[in-house]
Protein backbone atom coordinates (compact mmCIF):
# COMPACT_ATOMS: atom_id res chain seq x y z
CA UNK A 1 0.00 0.00 0.00
CA UNK A 2 1.29 3.42 -0.87
CA UNK A 3 1.06 6.30 1.59
CA UNK A 4 2.24 9.04 -0.73
CA UNK A 5 -1.24 10.51 -0.45
CA UNK A 6 -3.78 10.42 2.37
CA UNK A 7 -5.38 7.05 3.25
CA UNK A 8 -8.59 6.90 5.27
CA UNK A 9 -8.80 3.57 7.06
CA UNK A 10 -12.10 2.16 8.29
CA UNK A 11 -11.30 0.35 11.52
CA UNK A 12 -13.12 -2.86 12.38
CA UNK A 13 -12.88 -6.17 14.20
CA UNK A 14 -15.38 -7.76 11.80
CA UNK A 15 -14.36 -8.17 8.18
CA UNK A 16 -17.82 -9.39 7.21
CA UNK A 17 -19.15 -5.85 7.71
CA UNK A 18 -19.18 -4.38 4.27
CA UNK A 19 -17.10 -1.26 3.69
CA UNK A 20 -17.18 0.36 0.31
CA UNK A 21 -14.71 2.73 -1.19
CA UNK A 22 -17.24 5.56 -0.96
CA UNK A 23 -15.61 6.97 2.16
CA UNK A 24 -12.71 4.62 2.96
CA UNK A 25 -9.48 3.82 1.13
CA UNK A 26 -8.55 0.83 3.29
CA UNK A 27 -9.78 -1.33 6.14
CA UNK A 28 -7.86 -1.46 9.39
CA UNK A 29 -8.46 -4.97 10.75
CA UNK A 30 -8.04 -4.99 14.52
CA UNK A 31 -6.91 -8.56 15.07
CA UNK A 32 -6.69 -7.95 18.82
CA UNK A 33 -10.41 -7.16 19.04
CA UNK A 34 -11.59 -9.84 16.59
CA UNK A 35 -13.04 -13.34 16.98
CA UNK A 36 -11.27 -15.93 14.82
CA UNK A 37 -9.17 -13.27 13.06
CA UNK A 38 -7.21 -15.57 10.76
CA UNK A 39 -10.40 -17.30 9.58
CA UNK A 40 -11.93 -13.89 8.95
CA UNK A 41 -8.92 -12.93 6.87
CA UNK A 42 -9.09 -16.06 4.74
CA UNK A 43 -12.79 -15.43 4.08
CA UNK A 44 -12.37 -11.73 3.29
CA UNK A 45 -13.70 -10.82 -0.13
CA UNK A 46 -14.06 -7.04 0.27
CA UNK A 47 -12.72 -4.63 -2.28
CA UNK A 48 -10.47 -2.58 -0.01
CA UNK A 49 -6.90 -3.43 0.99
CA UNK A 50 -6.29 -4.31 4.62
CA UNK A 51 -4.01 -2.78 7.23
CA UNK A 52 -3.52 -5.49 9.87
CA UNK A 53 -3.09 -4.37 13.48
CA UNK A 54 -2.72 -6.58 16.54
CA UNK A 55 -2.50 -3.94 19.22
CA UNK A 56 -0.90 -4.91 22.49
CA UNK A 57 -2.58 -4.03 25.81
CA UNK A 58 -0.08 -1.40 26.88
CA UNK A 59 -0.67 0.56 23.67
CA UNK A 60 -4.45 0.57 24.08
CA UNK A 61 -5.29 -2.77 22.46
CA UNK A 62 -6.47 -6.10 23.78
CA UNK A 63 -3.68 -8.46 22.70
CA UNK A 64 -1.59 -9.98 25.47
CA UNK A 65 2.12 -9.41 25.18
CA UNK A 66 3.01 -12.96 24.12
CA UNK A 67 4.96 -14.20 21.08
CA UNK A 68 1.59 -15.29 19.60
CA UNK A 69 0.63 -11.68 19.11
CA UNK A 70 3.39 -10.90 16.64
CA UNK A 71 3.13 -14.36 15.14
CA UNK A 72 -0.53 -13.68 14.26
CA UNK A 73 0.52 -10.41 12.63
CA UNK A 74 3.21 -12.25 10.68
CA UNK A 75 0.67 -14.82 9.51
CA UNK A 76 -1.62 -12.00 8.43
CA UNK A 77 1.05 -10.76 6.01
CA UNK A 78 0.61 -14.02 4.07
CA UNK A 79 -2.90 -12.97 3.13
CA UNK A 80 -2.88 -11.31 -0.30
CA UNK A 81 -5.28 -8.51 0.70
CA UNK A 82 -3.11 -7.47 3.66
CA UNK A 83 -1.09 -4.65 2.14
CA UNK A 84 0.18 -3.04 5.34
CA UNK A 85 0.81 -3.97 8.95
CA UNK A 86 1.06 -1.82 12.07
CA UNK A 87 3.82 -2.62 14.55
CA UNK A 88 4.43 -0.64 17.74
CA UNK A 89 7.73 1.21 18.01
CA UNK A 90 8.08 -0.28 21.49
CA UNK A 91 7.92 -3.81 20.00
CA UNK A 92 10.58 -2.81 17.51
CA UNK A 93 12.73 -1.36 20.30
CA UNK A 94 12.30 -4.56 22.30
CA UNK A 95 13.63 -6.44 19.29
CA UNK A 96 10.76 -8.83 18.62
CA UNK A 97 9.01 -6.53 16.16
CA UNK A 98 11.93 -6.59 13.75
CA UNK A 99 11.37 -10.11 12.42
CA UNK A 100 7.74 -9.27 11.57
CA UNK A 101 8.89 -6.19 9.69
CA UNK A 102 11.42 -8.23 7.72
CA UNK A 103 8.76 -10.76 6.75
CA UNK A 104 6.43 -7.95 5.70
CA UNK A 105 9.15 -6.45 3.53
CA UNK A 106 9.83 -9.82 1.87
CA UNK A 107 6.16 -9.95 0.91
CA UNK A 108 5.97 -6.33 -0.27
CA UNK A 109 3.68 -5.43 2.62
CA UNK A 110 4.05 -1.85 3.85
CA UNK A 111 4.92 -1.14 7.46
CA UNK A 112 3.45 1.42 9.84
CA UNK A 113 5.44 1.85 13.05
CA UNK A 114 3.29 3.38 15.77
CA UNK A 115 3.31 4.90 19.25
CA UNK A 116 0.25 5.69 21.37
CA UNK A 117 0.14 7.90 24.42
CA UNK A 118 -3.18 7.70 26.27
CA UNK A 119 -2.04 10.04 29.03
CA UNK A 120 -0.62 13.14 27.45
CA UNK A 121 1.02 14.90 24.54
CA UNK A 122 4.80 14.55 24.81
CA UNK A 123 6.99 17.61 24.22
CA UNK A 124 7.64 18.70 20.64
CA UNK A 125 11.22 17.36 20.62
CA UNK A 126 10.06 14.04 22.05
CA UNK A 127 7.34 13.72 19.39
CA UNK A 128 9.94 14.50 16.72
CA UNK A 129 12.21 11.83 18.18
CA UNK A 130 9.47 9.19 18.30
CA UNK A 131 8.39 9.83 14.72
CA UNK A 132 11.90 9.93 13.42
CA UNK A 133 12.75 6.62 15.16
CA UNK A 134 9.55 5.08 13.78
CA UNK A 135 10.59 6.23 10.32
CA UNK A 136 13.85 4.28 10.62
CA UNK A 137 11.82 1.06 10.49
CA UNK A 138 8.49 1.89 8.90
CA UNK A 139 7.25 3.35 5.65
CA UNK A 140 5.04 5.48 7.88
CA UNK A 141 5.75 6.63 11.44
CA UNK A 142 2.54 7.04 13.41
CA UNK A 143 1.92 8.93 16.62
CA UNK A 144 -1.40 9.05 18.48
CA UNK A 145 -1.31 11.26 21.57
CA UNK A 146 -3.79 12.60 24.10
CA UNK A 147 -4.25 16.36 24.01
CA UNK A 148 -5.44 18.23 27.10
CA UNK A 149 -5.08 21.69 25.60
CA UNK A 150 -5.23 23.30 22.19
CA UNK A 151 -1.51 24.02 22.55
CA UNK A 152 -0.92 20.27 22.61
CA UNK A 153 -2.73 20.00 19.29
CA UNK A 154 -0.71 22.88 17.84
CA UNK A 155 2.52 21.14 18.84
CA UNK A 156 1.38 17.91 17.23
CA UNK A 157 0.48 19.72 14.01
CA UNK A 158 3.82 21.55 14.00
CA UNK A 159 5.68 18.26 14.41
CA UNK A 160 3.54 16.67 11.69
CA UNK A 161 4.48 19.48 9.32
CA UNK A 162 8.14 19.44 10.30
CA UNK A 163 8.55 15.68 9.78
CA UNK A 164 6.64 15.84 6.50
CA UNK A 165 8.96 18.61 5.33
CA UNK A 166 11.94 16.32 5.92
CA UNK A 167 10.34 13.91 3.45
CA UNK A 168 9.17 11.42 6.06
CA UNK A 169 5.69 9.88 5.80
CA UNK A 170 3.89 10.30 9.10
CA UNK A 171 0.42 9.75 10.49
CA UNK A 172 -0.67 11.74 13.53
CA UNK A 173 -3.79 12.29 15.56
CA UNK A 174 -4.72 13.62 18.99
CA UNK A 175 -7.10 11.28 20.77
CA UNK A 176 -9.90 12.50 23.02
CA UNK A 177 -12.29 15.42 22.88
CA UNK A 178 -9.84 18.34 22.93
CA UNK A 179 -7.80 16.99 20.06
CA UNK A 180 -10.64 15.57 18.04
CA UNK A 181 -10.44 18.21 15.33
CA UNK A 182 -6.84 17.14 14.67
CA UNK A 183 -8.28 14.10 12.90
CA UNK A 184 -9.69 16.40 10.24
CA UNK A 185 -6.90 18.97 10.27
CA UNK A 186 -3.68 16.92 10.58
CA UNK A 187 -3.97 15.65 6.98
CA UNK A 188 -3.55 19.28 5.85
CA UNK A 189 -0.22 19.34 7.67
CA UNK A 190 0.93 16.10 6.11
CA UNK A 191 -0.63 13.26 8.09
CA UNK A 192 -1.05 10.32 5.70
CA UNK A 193 -3.49 8.08 7.56
CA UNK A 194 -6.79 8.75 9.32
CA UNK A 195 -8.90 6.22 11.22
CA UNK A 196 -12.63 6.02 11.72
CA UNK A 197 -14.71 3.08 12.94
CA UNK A 198 -16.83 1.06 10.52
CA UNK A 199 -19.41 0.83 13.31
CA UNK A 200 -19.72 4.21 15.08
CA UNK A 201 -20.73 2.38 18.27
CA UNK A 202 -17.37 0.61 18.28
CA UNK A 203 -14.75 3.35 18.09
CA UNK A 204 -11.21 1.97 18.23
CA UNK A 205 -9.84 5.09 19.97
CA UNK A 206 -11.22 8.06 21.92
CA UNK A 207 -12.54 10.97 19.87
CA UNK A 208 -12.92 9.26 16.50
CA UNK A 209 -15.45 10.69 14.07
CA UNK A 210 -17.67 8.34 12.14
CA UNK A 211 -16.34 7.41 8.73
CA UNK A 212 -18.59 9.55 6.58
CA UNK A 213 -18.08 12.60 8.79
CA UNK A 214 -14.30 12.29 8.77
CA UNK A 215 -14.19 11.85 5.00
CA UNK A 216 -16.45 14.87 4.47
CA UNK A 217 -14.50 17.06 6.88
CA UNK A 218 -11.20 16.20 5.21
CA UNK A 219 -12.61 16.76 1.73
CA UNK A 220 -14.09 20.11 2.73
CA UNK A 221 -10.89 21.33 4.35
CA UNK A 222 -8.66 20.31 1.44
CA UNK A 223 -6.78 23.26 0.01
CA UNK A 224 -7.54 22.95 -3.68
O1 LIG B 1 -3.26 3.57 15.85
C1 LIG B 1 -4.39 3.79 15.49
C2 LIG B 1 -4.97 5.11 15.56
C3 LIG B 1 -6.16 5.08 16.50
O2 LIG B 1 -5.67 4.85 17.80
C4 LIG B 1 -6.85 6.46 16.48
O3 LIG B 1 -6.58 7.25 17.38
O4 LIG B 1 -7.67 6.69 15.58
C5 LIG B 1 -7.13 4.01 16.05
C6 LIG B 1 -6.51 2.64 15.95
O5 LIG B 1 -7.45 1.70 15.43
C7 LIG B 1 -5.29 2.69 15.08
O6 LIG B 1 -4.62 1.46 15.14
UniProtKB/TrEMBL annotation:
Source species, domain of life: Archaea
Could you say which protein family the record assigns here? Belongs to the type-I 3-dehydroquinase family.
Q: What is catalyzed by this enzyme?
A: 3-dehydroquinate = 3-dehydroshikimate + H2O
Spell out the catalytic residues.
Answer: 116, 142
Give the top-level enzyme category.
lyase
Q: What is this protein called?
A: 3-dehydroquinate dehydratase
MF terms per GO, please?
A: 3-dehydroquinate dehydratase activity
* A Pfam cross-reference name: DHquinase_I
**EC number in record:** 4.2.1.10
Q: Gene3D superfamilies attached here?
A: Aldolase class I (3.20.20.70)
Its job: Involved in the third step of the chorismate pathway, which leads to the biosynthesis of aromatic amino acids. Catalyzes the cis-dehydration of 3-dehydroquinate (DHQ) and introduces the first double bond of the aromatic ring to yield 3-dehydroshikimate.
